[in-house]
Design a protein that fits this description.
mainly alpha, rod-shaped, DUF4381
Length: about 160
């Protein structure tokens, strides 16, 4: 056996390929994950804020109705209409311009009693119909409608 030292230069090998230095910036996939996470957070905040605004409108309308209505039936119908339309700004914005039969149909379709929806649609403009309105029942039906619509009931 030979005791000569091994010389790697005699092997005819290619030089080692050194990798590129590692970047301090994460890979593109992580940027995409971060962007999607931020988008999801932004959407969650937006929907939370929007829902909070809807609930605030409903609570305000309920407080206004609980404070009582005018004793005159026609004035009570006018006030209920105003309160309900203010509350509709968030869930049913298209309803703000409705009146008459269109308003009555909308109220009935979303859970208002037919008698109260008829009163709200027509008694405001017709004193003879207004005399047939029970303001206590109207107030009760409006409160129930608000609770039903804003507690996961009917949404447009």
């Amino acid at each position: 056996m030979s005791t000569a030292a091994f010389d790697p230069s005699q092997l005819n090998l290619e030089p080692l390929i050194t990798p590129d230095p590692v970047s301090a910036w994460p890979a593109y996939g992580w940027w995409l994950v971060a962007a999607l996470a931020l988008l999801a957070i932004a959407l969650a905040v937006f929907f939370w804020w929007h829902r909070r605004q809807q609930q605030r409108a409903a609570r305000l309308a309920q407080r206004q109705l609980q404070q009582g209505l005018p004793s005159a039936p026609q004035a009570a119908c006018m006030q209920c209409n105003q309160i309900l339309k203010q509350a509709c700004r968030y869930y049913f914005p298209q309803a703000l311009s409705w009146h008459g039969d269109q308003w009555r149909t909308f109220l009935t379709d979303t859970g208002m009693s037919p008698h109260s929806s008829e009163a709200l649609a027509h008694a405001t403009y017709d004193p003879q119909r207004a005399d047939q309105v029970d303001t206590q029942q109207l107030q009760h039906d409006c409160l129930r409608w608000l609770q039903q619509c804003w507690k996961g009931g009917h949404h447009a």
